[in-house]
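Supplementary Note 2. Why include the ligand at all?

Several targets in our set were suspected to adopt different conformations when bound, so apo predictions alone were not considered sufficient. For every target with a known small-molecule partner we therefore ran a joint prediction. The input for acetyl coenzyme *A is given below.
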Amino acid sequence: MDATGQEERVPVRGLEGVVAGETKASYVDGANGFLIYNGYDIHELADKVSFDEVVYLLWYGKLPNRKELEAFRSRVVSEMRLPSQVIKMIELAPPGAHPMDLLRTAVSALSMFDPDSGNLSVEANERKSVRLLGQMMTIIADMYRVREHQPVLSADPTLDIGPNFLYMFRGRMPDEEEASAFEELLLLHADHGFNASTFAARVTASTLADMHATLTSALGTLKGSLHGGANERVMEMLEEIDHVDMVDSYIEGMLNDGQRIMGFGHRVYKVEDPRARHLREWSEVLCHRADMAHFHDIFHRIEQVVLKKKGIYPNVDFYSASVQHALGIPREYFTTIFSAARTAGWLAHAMEQYADNRLIRPTSRYIGAWNQKVVPIGQRS
Ligand code: ACO
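The joint prediction is reproduced in token form.
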């Protein structure tokens, strides 16, 4: 007991290093810089499988055979449509509303139209997962089209989930290289242990709130600039750097001012984030073919300077910004794309949590006042 009569309680700031649960979905080895999805190294998955296969792996615990994959893909693609009321809501939103705010609100609204809304059975949660993955992609594409005064497009049943999204968003078929880059971007963002938004999702699921509530919590958490919102902030920084020769002084200025460089550092990785390697390669390829090689050069120089000055490596959000920019995605949509990919992981974790649930309810150390006496309101200063 301490002087206040509380037990000795030593909070772990930011829950750093706290083991808050178990998962089969993914493992992050921060010391050695590797990431595993359900037993498979992320590098091998990135080279050999599609995003659709990875979602299947995260939800069903194995890589699908051809027949299983085709059935799964066509179920998700058939859900890439929205109730007309949700499209109306998107149309009525203030034009300046941030896409993450609108995405979060639309996902929350979808709970009112879902036939399995109040049903937490394993079967209903699986159906809702399929639906929500397709709908999440569609909200983002439709939101962009509505705001650009373009007609919303129906999914193409012949395309995989990721390329379908690109088609519905940009209004033109992605070529093979664009489709592969985008697939890999989604795959690399699909899951990442007990990160902040996944933990938020699991806390919500642990109260036996439904999957729409779980996703809404996760979306709110991902938006922050210390988490998924960093990719948008990376792009803001790039908009202030016109030429590679400006990089050194710009970054030194920021560091001297004690500012953080967005897209760098990580709570778990102490070496390079393994996802950054793939996105760096795609950034180079896509920027060159879009006649934006100078843009990739600026990114690369920033990486060199931050590493030299602070010994910090880029995280997934850094080159994700240049890849998305080269694919023609506006920066305010970057975090929504991250959300669409991470929906795979959030839902995998939600299903895991429901399957073996115990309410997540930690405790705290009280540092407020003691023995206060209520003064009647008329006598308070
Ligand atoms: N720029 C400059 N310095 C940094 C950065 C950065 N991006 N990240 C960490 N540091 C420094 C800190 O100032 C601190 O230095 P000090 O010891 O001299 O004070 C040291 O590195 C340790 O930083 P912490 O804040 O203790 O690390 P923490 O684990 O809390 O932070 C975080 C991790 C939040 C990701 C941090 O690195 C950061 O703010 N990065 C920028 C935002 C970002 O890119 N977020 C996306 C992360 S990936 C994801 O969520 C998908």
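The pocket of acetyl coenzyme *A is lined by residues 14, 226-228, 230, 260-267, 310, 312, 315-317 (CB under 6 Å). Residues 54 and 373 are 58 Å apart (CA to CA). Comparable summaries for the other entries are listed in the accompanying table.
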